[in-house]
Amino acid sequence: MSTVSHRLAVHAVADHTVSPELAEWMRLLLLDYHAITGGGFHRDSAVAARAAVEISEQPTAFFPAALHGVDGAGKSGFATVESAALVNGITAHGLELDDTFEESSLHPGVVIFPAVLALASTRQSLTGEVLRAAIVGYDVMCTVGVLLGARESYGRGFHPTGVAGCLGAAAAAARLLGLTVEQTAHALGLAANMASGSLEFLADGSWTKRLNAGHAAATGIRAAKLAAAGFTAPATAIEGRDGFLVQYGAGVVEGRQLALEFGRSALDTSIKFYPCCRYMHGNIDLLRDIREQNPELGIDDVARIRVGVIRAGASLVSEPAARKLVVNTPVDAQFNMPFGAAVALATGRATVDQFDDAPAVAAELMEWMEKVECYRSDSLEAAFPARWQAEVQVVLRNGTVIEKSENSFRGAPGDRATWADIVQKAEGLIGAPAAKALAASVSELDDSTVLGGGVAVPRDTLTASRA
């Protein structure tokens, strides 16, 4: 019987060829990962994560894996492989600026790169090997996420990045460890058994969403190591009666296929330019455009701000409506369409500083937030999940209605980010000197370079990022 785990395992260990387009894109994703990890280094959640693990100033046999950050994108010490994956995943996910695979509504980079870079540090792996493993991780994580379904997963209170990420990290780690098809299938089954990650952070703006990324990275490594040692898992761990798809979704859904094409998931991954939930980005794009075209617009001119919200994301960014008018932490703002709409239309921006200062900014913009109405749109639902589209209406007091829509969010495959875009994004997070040094370090990697767990950035180029 060809189980889901077996089919994923065959794909994970196959002899894949990396096209020039895919190789270039993986380096861009790696650059983005290091930029957001550097930018997130001083998040309180990242500081707490580092304090929770043992750290060595120098790499040793017991602490071989680099912790990424150092006020930017370098290395801030060394830990065990699993601890490094945990901490780096938490750190990278802190800003909500990490890449997104829209069809399954998850963030692969903050799971897959922490896993493969931590594991690579013990093997002196070549860049080509590490990136192939990362591509496999993206493939498995994103494809399993599609099988799971964002709407179904969210409906059961689970975070797709946390649960599907465990399987992606396990596949990537299994490939880097050189596991067989059988061992890899067991690794995937073990990861399915250990998967975790709830949405309850929405209740009070706490940090567990960030933990979900790091936990998935570390759990994938643990699953692969257990499988390498002979530990077994159920063959039907994913699709079985009590398996992964039933636990975290609606089981096997008719019409959803396990469509595996090497590198397709990575190539279809979107880049984020706003530090908040991806479901908010399209509306922020459009409202910023309206602000740019109507710079004189004031609160007294606006009667209503109507924004279409994709149903799968409503429980994250717009429901319950009364709760979204309470902003006590940055996390409250990161998952808050009224807040995102207000900052975009009132200020023409949506920056890390604004989300960091969310309670004060929300108090200042509360009149704008109270005018935001989130609605369901048949056209948005018809395109979802293959395409994330956006539409907004700004209704003025004089009766004028300003309407805008877009077929893809900025940074999505339909509006793909460039290397220059990521460098500019990095400059805003870690300072221009560090961003340029980081970009140079990543661009100089070739397949025969020993990656050894990350890329180096000179300490004297680094600019302290915001706490």
TrEMBL record:
SUPFAM superfamilies: 2-methylcitrate dehydratase PrpD (SSF103378). It comes from the Bacteria. GO terms for molecular function: lyase activity. InterPro entries: MmgE/PrpD_sf, MmgE/PrpD_sf_1, MmgE/PrpD_sf_2, MmgE_PrpD, MmgE_PrpD_C, MmgE_PrpD_N. Residues 274-431 form the MmgE/PrpD C-terminal domain. Residues 13-249 form the MmgE/PrpD N-terminal domain. Belongs to the PrpD family. This is 2-methylcitrate dehydratase PrpD.
